[in-house]
Each structure stands twice: as C-alpha cells, then as structure tokens.
Amino acid sequence: MQNSKSKRELEERIHSLEESLTELKRKLADLEAEEQHEAIDHLNEFLHEVDHELDSLRTFWPEAMRELRRMLGRKA
After folding, report:
1. Which of 34, 50, 63, 66 could make an S-S bridge to 76, C-beta 3.0–4.6 Å?
2. Is-contact 29 37, C-beta < 8 A?
3. Which residues form a coiled coil (predicted)?
C-alpha cells in the first residue's frame, strides 16, 4: 500500500514538473520571439539611418568633387 502511494505521488510530481517545464519552454519561446521582433525593429531603424546617410553623401559628393577639382586647378 505504501509503495503504490509513493509511486502515485512520484507520478503526480513528475506530471506536475513536466507541466511546469512545458510552461517554461513556452515562456522562453515567447521571449525569444519578442527579442527577434525587437532586433528586426532596430535593424529597420539602422537601415533607415544608413539610407539617410547615403542620400546625404549622394547630395554632397558632386559638390565635394567640384571643390576638389577647383583646389587642384581643374575644370568642374
């Protein structure tokens, strides 16, 4: 009788622990998904900044080349 009670208690405890582990795995997966979304958002912000800097460079480059040519004594 004691053995079967002990066995049943162990089985119940294992079941409870398995449920807890499943819940922890779900929470971890949720956190990882959230981190990925945040990383993607930051990547989009970074790409927007790079695009803006590239536009600025495209605007500035012809003027810089004209000034360089003028300084070197060549025609623009």
Report:
1. 66
2. no
3. 7-41
Q: What is the pLDDT of residues 9-61, one digit of tens each?
A: 999 999 999 999 999 999 999 999 999 999 999 999 999 999 999 999 999 99
The span from the first CA to the last CA of the chain, in angstroms, equals 101
Six-digit token pair at 27? Answer: 């929470």
User: pTM value?
Assistant: 0.56
How far apart CA 63 and CA 57 sit, in angstroms, is 10
Sequence-distant (6+) residues with CB within 8 A of 65 are 76
* CB-based contacts of 72, cutoff 8 Å, min separation 6: none
